[in-house]
Design goal:
The chain has 115 residues and is mainly α. It has two domains: 1-26, no CATH class; 33-111, no CATH class. Helix content is 58%, strand content 0%. It has seven helices and no strands. The chain has helices spanning 2-8, 14-22, 29-32, 46-55, 70-75, 79-98, 101-111. Helix 1 (2-8) packs antiparallel against helix 2 and helix 4 packs across helix 6 (79-98). The longest helix has 20 residues, at 79-98. It is globular. The model has no long low-confidence stretch (mean pLDDT 92).
């Protein structure tokens, strides 16, 4: 459906969008972060993953608001707040990925016998 909408809105040609979509490597940080949260999805948030990384000395940017704030910001017309929140989340995810934060936290924790 996303590829079809991309063609419909002239984002790219069908072959280009198929290549982009099917050649993309995706990492699900919430599944990767499960060991940092006792293998439970409940409470396995981006903020918690970032906090664990910070506790282990990894420099991770700060969050801006919470996901639960977005509906209120939308109703109040505070679209800039939503954009700031989403940009902060993307910066955090990128930093977690580029620093290999989850692996570093797991290695440090296991070497201390905390896992």
């Amino acid at each position: 459906m996303l590829i079809q909408k991309g063609v419909e809105y002239s984002v790219g040609s069908l072959p280009d969008l198929n290549k982009l979509w099917h050649d993309t490597f995706t990492i699900d940080l919430f599944q990767v972060g499960l060991p940092l949260n006792n293998m439970m999805f409940k409470g396995n948030t981006l903020e918690n993953i970032a906090n664990k990384a910070r506790e282990h000395g990894i420099d991770i940017p700060s969050t801006y608001g919470r996901g639960e704030d977005v509906p209120r910001w939308y109703e109040e017309g505070k679209y800039d707040e939503i954009v700031k929140h989403l940009k902060a989340d993307l910066e955090i995810m990128r930093c977690i990925d580029l620093t290999n934060a989850v692996v570093k936290v797991l290695v440090q924790s296991s070497s201390k016998g905390n896992i």
